[in-house]
């Protein structure tokens, strides 16, 4: 009989090899799935993981997309991961992302068509504030009334989506847009445009912010006393209270930080790659970031790598749809498999297989 | 085999990584009280679980009255005449005594008949109990009676009792012992699990001693000294703590009229608690579990705040301060629950050292943690308190209970507290480690700290304390010097008769 047996200590080897094993298992099982769909599995895997970077024809277009897609994922996931370490489950990053973008865009558009250099910084600030305020709603409700932050933050996503639908076709609608929903296009307004910083790299201010967030989160979680208190609250809430950690402060800080980073990500996306506030500019980054946070095992460096990997499967998936005619749903399934295998393999970090001989029954 | 009720031969049970029982053999005669003695982790629980059908042995046989005995489940064991009273009761608070008893029976009689039977048995064995009372209103001792009567109604031939006295006052212990002796006189055998040596010497006919899963000896406890029993149990001789001469100084900790509502539904409220502890003095606070011990510690550590004037550290009113400020002023605590309260299970010892020592050991610089210093401090604790661990990077949960307890106590003592409050400092700790911890507490007091030891182990309190008080339903009794107290008086204090009569008697 095979049983799982708890390890006395988490295995160091598995902590690092689990993501790699998970990716390999995803490739194998995904390959079998693509084979069942009638494609050559090796070609499909190569199209997803290799071609976006190195295809002679398409790579020039798809390579910059890597950072464009990874930037917001990493920025949001870093914020989420810090809360997750404290056992605070903010599922509503998508809403914070939307409200951040709306607030930042609104602040900028109020000054249209000024070309002051302060426009963009103001928009970033308002984007951060917007996301922060939206995250403060579940935070304060939890602190004051003990509500469940998972439900409140998730439901606020739908509220945010409706706010977005409303402003895109109302308050923020482009007056020169022939009545179509959607704001002015920021790409045509230099003072508010989050442009590519280095040609053909996809690098924009949001990606810079993501890298800074990775570095900041690393220092916070491993070197700063606040990071220690956050980890302690997640590991052993009673020990945290004994140590003198104020649980309310941790809740407000973690949700606020996640909201602020998600809000910033939304603003960078709206003013950069998306170019305008439309009803669909958000593209689900706030939810995918949850997967990225766990795939990176809530560690800043892990999240950096996981964000890049996730972005790669997005771009590669689109490429595979285009070139091999694979259905879009199979690509989503492929991404889902990645998380599934990671969580499954993760069990071996804390448990090991034990072959028990004769359990006399 | 005429005079053997239950015979165990070569019982072996291994769990992954540990052999819980290794080739254990002994016999229980009809009508004897047989003690099973051993430290925590010696394999007592596994052994009785095999007898009660909860665990199957890997090897070995049992015979009951000469016939092979292989209970597949507790129901089979009960059918064969083996009953067990667990250390942790399995009773429903919201149901009455009779309803709880009926739930544990295979074929419960009609409620009215059952109530009569309960009354009969409780009278016959001197265990007063009203069948119609709701269990939630009963004391720990009364709840144990419910469990015992539930067993007795099945007319067992062997009654297993797992640490039955750990929740009882001395008076209740006396009643229990009379019942057990009466059962013995009627021919029922009792397997009595304990690590309290004096109890075993007073009550039991035979004792089997387990150490690290192996049987060490079977002896007659009345002919063996407590010290010999302890040494067989531990496997080595150890030093009994020796108090050093101490000078009583100024009052360092003063609690005045401390009252706090119960935390949650199952806590105990603190009611008007007042006491003082001087420098160089150890105050022992006893009481049956669940009478406000955890709540008192939380109120002293700052986890729960009270009126500022309720708690004084020397000249400072600290009642409204949180744990961080209190620690900075020198009021340190070590809670009962090691894993999850005193220490975070999955964090390393270095991180757990940092947990309470951040401020006093100066382990941060502008908010950044000085991990090198923290590690040095953890190493210092490990060395000074002989904590057995591969390194300071080991997770707390990988340590044995005794080693982690030494680490937790050592962490607070090495921070040189002015006042130290500990709850159950040696709970679940082996005898040698317990002696080391008590010695460390005595030494700390000798160096001029004021210490409060909250414990359910009366022997421990008598050994280390200068003065003694008892908690009962959140109230603290009048406090008396230990040398003036008899066991009877202590029992009365623990049972709640702590008002004027006792105070007058020793004024």
TrEMBL record, chain A:
InterPro entries: ABC_transp_permease. The chain crosses the membrane at residues 13-37, 66-88, 95-112, 118-141, 150-172, 203-221, 250-268, 274-296, 303-323, 329-348. GO terms for cellular component: plasma membrane. It is a multi-pass membrane protein. It is found in: Cell membrane. Keywords: Cell membrane, Membrane, Transmembrane, Transmembrane helix. GO terms for molecular function: transmembrane transporter activity. The keyword Transmembrane applies. The keyword Transmembrane helix applies. Pfam families: BPD_transp_2. It comes from the Bacteria. PANTHER family: ABC TRANSPORTER, PERMEASE PROTEIN (PTHR47089), GUANOSINE ABC TRANSPORTER PERMEASE PROTEIN NUPP (PTHR47089:SF1). This is Uncharacterized protein. The lineage of its organism: Bacteria, Pseudomonadati, Pseudomonadota, Alphaproteobacteria, Rhodobacterales.
From TrEMBL, chain B:
This is Galactose/methyl galactoside import ATP-binding protein MglA. PANTHER family: CARBOHYDRATE TRANSPORT ATP-BINDING PROTEIN MG119-RELATED, GUANOSINE IMPORT ATP-BINDING PROTEIN NUPO. Gene3D superfamilies: P-loop containing nucleotide triphosphate hydrolases. The gene is mglA_2. Keywords: ATP-binding, Cell membrane, Hydrolase, Membrane, Nucleotide-binding, Repeat, Sugar transport, Translocase, Transport. Residues 6-237, 253-498 form the ABC transporter domain. InterPro entries: AAA+_ATPase, ABC_carbohydrate_import_ATPase, ABC_transporter-like_ATP-bd, ABC_transporter-like_CS, P-loop_NTPase. The lineage of its organism: Bacteria, Pseudomonadati, Pseudomonadota, Alphaproteobacteria, Rhodobacterales. It comes from Pseudoprimorskyibacter insulae. Its EC number is 3.6.3.17. GO terms for molecular function: ATP binding; ATP hydrolysis activity. One of its GO terms (cellular component) is plasma membrane.
